[in-house]
Specification:
Elements: E1 2-12, E2 15-26, E3 31-34, H1 40-53, E4 62-67, H2 79-89, H3 95-98, E5 102-104, E6 106-107, E7 113-114, E8 130-132, H4 140-144, H5 149-154, E9 161-164, H6 167-178, E10 182-186, H7 192-201, H8 211-223, E11 230-231, H9 237-246, E12 251-254, H10 262-274, E13 279-284, H11 303-311, H12 315-319, E14 323-327, E15 334-337, H13 340-353, H14 373-386, H15 390-406, H16 414-422
Parallel strand pairs: 3-4, 5-8, 10-13, 10-14, 11-12, 12-13
Antiparallel strand pairs: 1-2, 2-4, 6-7, 9-15
Helix pairs in contact: 1-2, 6-13, 6-15, 9-10, 15-16
This protein binds zinc ion.
The site of zinc ion has 8 residues, from loops.
């Protein structure tokens, strides 16, 4: 049995009283009980969704929640302290950070924290030790300045990029070197999300023109100790707008792209057209069950399910990614690899054109440095055979430029172009 306790306030008959929410975790069948709460179903569901939505694990055993002041009823404002108490009891949050304060706040299903409603919202005047909701931008994870335990153990710390050696590590270096947009797909457990997060950690700074935006981002980051690195599944366009704003001139990581609503996908397309300095790192399963094209398990989807899945990945969106990469399952453990070559390639690009290849606002193939007329002809020929759009051809040329920069040469070779073409394996062709 383990116990987590968080200070909060209760509204009793004599006004507000200081109290605590305690969470007791015991073995047994999964069940959550909120003592002394008549309508506990709604609170319970919201609590579970919020904890999961913020990227933590909800305990799959018996959870008992208690508001320790006997005369005070449970209210939605107690969901935040309840969630924090559960995270402490399950060892997912550090008690030392959270215990000095009293907590009150409503929770959104994605783990975001909302402003408390009256009369609770007037409590801000009580003093610095009471934290009462916020403007809706903070989530449980920011508060705790912590990462879920599962993530900590899955990503060993290393000086450079820490990924399984071989194809995945190579691809990550190509993408990082030119700050290209990446669409990663493949079976569950192939390490897509882990790789994207690891790449995000090493994402290059933007051009100098973006420095002031960076300063703003850093200031904001100070206020929010640890921003989530990826958008939760089923995000709203408003959330994306917020993320874009925070990650201006940077990278946005989106897990499970097909599951997001079409409004968000439209916004994403618009975003990629408007601002070439923001790269998108997105992941997806290749089909609804996830096992299409896998050696480990057979796909259970029928034709209509596959078609439905493909409709969730609109072509105009896929077209805007520079690299489309299929993840194969590997049991290789992650190992650190040096980013020296990547840093050198980035330096070459900045000196030549003031930005990285993925951020080049080029409209024509001839605008890409090193694209000779012969190469352009070759690319056009290949593109018409593969049915690549004009935009995709530009992406291929930019990635080829990056491959040449990694070799530290001015001229793009035919091999670079062919390798770059191979980096556009669309999931719709599986
Ligand atoms: Zn399937």
């Amino acid at each position: 049995m383990s116990l987590g306790r968080i200070a909060t306030l209760g509204a009793g008959p004599q006004g507000f009283v200081a109290t605590r929410v305690s969470a007791q975790i015991q073995g047994g069948l999964p069940e959550t009980r909120i003592l002394g709460c008549p309508q506990q179903g709604a609170l319970r569901d919201r609590l579970r969704s919020a904890i999961k939505g913020a990227g933590f694990k909800y305990p799959s055993c018996r959870v008992t929640l208690d508001l320790e002041a006997p005369d005070c009823p449970w209210e939605e404002e107690h969901l935040l302290p309840a969630a924090l108490a559960i995270l402490i009891a399950t060892g997912q949050a550090r008690a030392s950070i959270l215990e000095p304060y009293r907590w009150l706040g409503r929770l959104r299903l994605d783990g975001g924290i909302e402003q408390a409603q009256p009369p609770w919202s007037q409590l801000t005047k009580l003093g610095d030790d009471t934290v009462v909701g916020n403007d809706g931008r903070l989530s449980i994870q920011h508060l705790c300045d912590l990462t879920p335990k599962t993530r900590q153990t899955s990503t060993p710390q290393g000086p450079g990029l820490c990924l399984p050696a071989g194809a995945i590590s190579e691809m990550a270096q190509w993408v990082l070197a030119g700050a290209h947009s990446l669409f990663a797909y493949g079976e569950p457990g192939a390490g897509k999300s882990r790789t994207l997060l690891e790449m995000h950690k090493h994402w290059p700074d933007s051009t100098e023109a973006n420095c002031h935006r960076w300063a703003r981002w850093h200031r904001r980051r100070k206020a929010l100790p640890r921003l989530r690195r990826s958008l939760p599944a089923r995000s709203t366009p408003a959330q994306l707008t917020h993320w874009c704003e925070v990650y201006q001139g940077h990278a946005i990581t989106i897990d499970d792209l097909p599951l997001h609503n079409s409004g968000l996908k439209d916004r994403l397309i618009q975003r990629m057209d408007e601002d070439s300095s923001t790269a998108i790192l997105a992941s997806a399963n290749p089909c609804a069950c996830g096992w299409l094209g896998s050696d480990r398990k057979a796909c259970r989807c029928d034709q209509s399910q596959r078609q439905r899945w493909h409709r969730l990945l609109p072509n105009p969106l896929l077209d805007r990614f520079d690299v489309l990469w299929r993840f194969e399952y590997t049991d290789q453990p992650p190992e650190p690899c040096s980013l020296e070559l990547v840093t050198q390639a980035q330096k070459i690009q900045r000196e030549r054109q003031g930005c990285l290849n993925g951020q080049l606002p080029a409209q024509q193939l001839s605008h890409i440095p090193g694209m000779s007329p012969a190469l352009t002809r070759l690319l056009r020929l290949q593109a018409s055979a593969l049915g690549l759009s004009g935009r995709a051809q530009l992406s291929v040329a930019k990635v080829a430029r990056t491959l040449a920069d990694l070799r530290q040469t001015d001229t793009i070779r035919e091999d670079d172009l062919m390798q770059s073409l191979a980096l556009r394996a669309s999931p719709l062709e599986l």
